[in-house]
Design goal:
alpha+beta; twelve-stranded mixed sheet; 18 helices
């Protein structure tokens, strides 16, 4: 290659990547372009390194669809950091390195530039909403396929999660609602034909940051940039999915689908994003409110996920440990959400502090689990008489500004799950807490019938006690 181009490439490497990454990425390009040989041209100069579409296809080896390979190639060949170039039939090392930097570490403006050229084959032309929708669906499908192929689903199993195709459709639809033309909210139908420039794409990525995550993951996985000692710096699957504990070796099929997990993860506080553990599933633990209470008390922040009998999926994030008491608890980090038939997050309004509620055994107070609203008028309610619940919003829940989450105001539970998000609270790591510590009435009742209270009381006895308290006259 010429001396001026060599200096430009070295400048890109020096400014954008560490020394170890420069070596690694340079080797990747050499392998892809077939230039890691000793071949010389006349005069003893090394041949100019160029990457063609066929070389890229051969390297990726069908890991993603042909359409996505073309998108990536268009993104590479339209990049030149120094001057504007006509569309070329090959990609230089400088373009390749700039593409990697823009997609994995670049600014929103740089990433929107790449996406615009991945969406359209025209170097500087606008794109339509329909093209953005097709790209969005392509990138979601490609990333999930690559994570599955590379065994990087972080403990989530395709056969143990909900319908990924429907989940992808819902996530695509949600991301399209974040796309605006000239700052205006347009219907999805109208967006199909509207022309959008780089500024609109940049604004879109600022409001739908998961697109940045998908772009980074796509490039790293498709180009096999995770198979080196530097993978922690370049890409980690935990950027996309939390570590899943509790379903891999069980017979449980969670109501969550992979796209919905990807959607929920960045909406949680950062310390609750890395690891999720299934605490309760009605599939495994039975349809028992007492078992539900036993499983979720004092476990730190949790996600409650409900599927009603008509197929709607919804729930809430509890930012603090659940405690049995006849008062509201929690804080403003709590929120409600919907996953089916559409995705939505509903945060606190500040109108009141009715974030979380869990109570049993009271005659004058509601018995059950609730989030938001008022007594007997909750945004989400699970009755202690397990199997029934309600989501009341006329027109919105006062605490979370959420609409009715379920298909009908009063719903029947099909499946209920609770996930611990984050690590077990430090206060719980050093002790085994009895359920009786939260209910002195249950403790007194045991003493009356001559039972000895033991540390680590068996779950079955706990269930019997809570059932007795729930159903007593």
């Amino acid at each position: 290659m010429g001396n001026s181009e060599s200096q430009s490439v070295q400048e890109v490497w020096r400014n954008q990547f560490s020394a170890e990454e420069r070596t690694y990425l340079g080797d990747i390009f050499d392998i892809m372009s077939g230039s890691n040989t000793t071949e010389e041209t006349k005069g003893g100069k090394a041949p100019k390194q160029q990457l063609t579409l066929s070389m890229l296809e051969a390297y990726i080896k069908g890991a993603v669809t042909g359409r996505m390979i073309i998108r990536m190639y268009n993104g590479m060949r339209n990049i030149h950091p120094m001057k504007k170039l006509n569309v070329a039939d090959s990609v230089s090392k400088k373009q390749f390195l700039s593409f990697l930097y823009y997609t994995m570490r670049g600014s929103v403006e740089e990433r929107s530039f790449v996406i615009q050229h991945m969406i359209s084959s025209q170097p500087d032309g606008p794109v339509t909403g329909r093209q953005v929708k097709e790209f969005t669906e392509d990138v979601i499908v490609s990333v999930i396929h690559l994570l599955n192929k590379e065994k990087m689903l972080m403990g989530w199993k395709m056969e143990k999660t909900g319908d990924c195709i429907l989940g992808t459709s819902r996530l695509t639809a949600y991301l399209m609602t974040e796309l605006k033309a000239k700052g205006e909210d347009l219907s999805l139908e109208h967006l199909q034909t509207v022309k959008l420039g780089q500024d609109a794409l940049k604004d879109w990525m600022c409001r739908a940051s998961v697109i940045i995550t998908f772009l980074h993951a796509l490039v790293a996985l498709a180009l096999h940039l995770t198979k080196s000692e530097y993978q922690g710096e370049l890409f980690s699957p935990n950027q996309v999915l939390p570590l899943c504990l509790g379903i891999e070796y069980s017979g449980i099929v969670t109501v969550l689908d992979i796209p919905s997990v990807i959607y929920l993860k960045p909406n949680l506080p950062s310390r609750n994003q890395r690891q999720w553990k299934l605490l309760f599933s009605s599939q495994a633990h039975g349809e028992s409110f007492s078992r539900l209470s036993t499983q979720i008390l004092h476990k730190g922040p949790t996600l409650l996920v409900v599927k009603d009998s008509l197929g709607y999926v919804f729930g809430g994030f509890a930012s603090c440990s659940w405690e049995l008491k006849p008062q509201f608890q929690g804080d403003s980090r709590c929120f409600l959400f919907t996953l089916n038939p559409k995705l939505g997050i509903y945060s606190c309004t500040g109108y009141n502090e009715h974030y979380m509620y869990l109570n049993v055994g009271q005659q004058t107070m509601p018995n059950g689990l609730g989030m938001g609203g008022q007594h007997n008028y909750f945004g989400l309610w699970i009755d202690s008489n397990y199997g029934k619940g309600h989501s009341k919003a006329k027109p919105r829940c006062t605490t979370y500004n959420s609409p009715q989450l379920s298909a009908e105001e009063h719903f029947t539970i099909d499946t209920l799950e609770v996930w611990m998000v984050g690590n077990l609270p430090a206060s719980e790591l050093s002790k085994t807490k009895s359920i009786l510590d939260t209910d002195p009435e249950a403790q007194a009742l045991l003493e009356m019938v001559g039972k000895t209270r033991l540390l680590g009381l068996t779950t079955s006895l706990c269930d019997w006690m809570l059932d007795f308290l729930n159903n007593r006259p």
